[in-house]
Amino acid sequence: MMARKCIIISGCPGTGKTIVARRLADILKLDYINLSELVLNEKLYRNYDVKRETYIVNLRKFNRRIREIIEVSSGIVVDSHYGDVIPSRYVKKVIVLRLHPIELKRRLVERGWRIEKIRENIEAELINLCTLNALDRHKGRVYEINVTGKSVDEVVEEALDIVNSKVASRRYIDWLSILSRSDFTSLFQF
Ligand SMILES: Nc1ncnc2c1ncn2[C@@H]1O[C@H](COP(=O)(O)OP(=O)(O)O)[C@@H](O)[C@H]1O
Ligand SMILES: [Mg+2]
User: Fold this and answer.
1) Ligand 1: which atom is nearest the Cα of residue 151?
2) In the chain, which residue ranges form alpha helices assigned H by DSSP?
3) N- or C-end of the chain: fewer Cβ atoms within 10 A?
4) Could you tell me if 3 and 70 are in contact, meaning their C-beta atoms sit under 8 angstroms apart?
5) Ligand 1: distance of its center to the CA of 74 in Å?
6) Which atom of ligand 1 is nearest to the CA of 19?
7) CATH code, 49
8) Ligand 1 site: residues with CB under 6 angstroms?
9) What is d(CA 89, CA 5) in angstroms, rounded to the nearest whole number?
């Protein structure tokens, strides 16, 4: 029988994926894998896109390798910006971390990222990109946590509730309908 072994933690860079996914894996005694690190460490990319400052994944190599990893694992928390790269038959739940774009901007500025890169990620958060990508492949299994103003502990608690099926409703955040005009103005002023 094919077990659904993967819990995917997705979201824009800076939303807290890594810290939350590691804690979750610890608590649930599951394996942990960071897909960007996997791609880099095992050179599962085709080339580097200089303009976007990102590696282009070699999907053939990546798919083969991720299947191997999942097959030998008894359960795994997947830390990935891309919620849609794992075959859906392996996926138990996708949890997308959502962060208020103003706070996201603050964190990325703190990280010292270039303005272009920050803008790209603010836009991705604004248009719900990670959630839409996850829904594309994992419809019915996609949940969100609004991490804004919450401690890591609180976020992990919510994630555990989702994993343990204590969260029934799936309501998705839409920053575009929530943000004020002055929010938008300050978002794109650097
Ligand atoms: N709930 C939170 N409250 C405050 N800071 C957080 C929270 N979650 C993460 N952080 C901080 O934000 C930064 C990004 O977290 P990280 O886990 O690296 O995010 P990601 O893996 O999504 O890029 C780190 O400095 C982390 O300590
Ligand atoms: Mg990370």
Assistant:
1) 1
2) 17-28, 35-41, 59-72, 101-110, 115-126, 129-138, 152-163, 181-187
3) N
4) no
5) 27
6) 17
7) 3.40.50.300
8) 11, 13-19, 107, 147, 150-152, 155
9) 9
pLDDT of residue 169: 67
Q: 122 with 187: CB under 8 angstroms?
A: yes
pLDDT band at 52 (very low <50, low <70, confident <90, very high): confident
Domain total in the chain: 1
24 found inside a domain: yes
Between the alpha carbon of residue 178 and those of residues 8, 175, 185, the distances in Å are: 26, 5, 14
Is 1 contained in some domain? no
Atom 9 of ligand 1: nearest residue by CA position:
16
Distance 153 CA to ligand 2 centre (A): 17
Full-prediction pTM beyond 0.90? yes
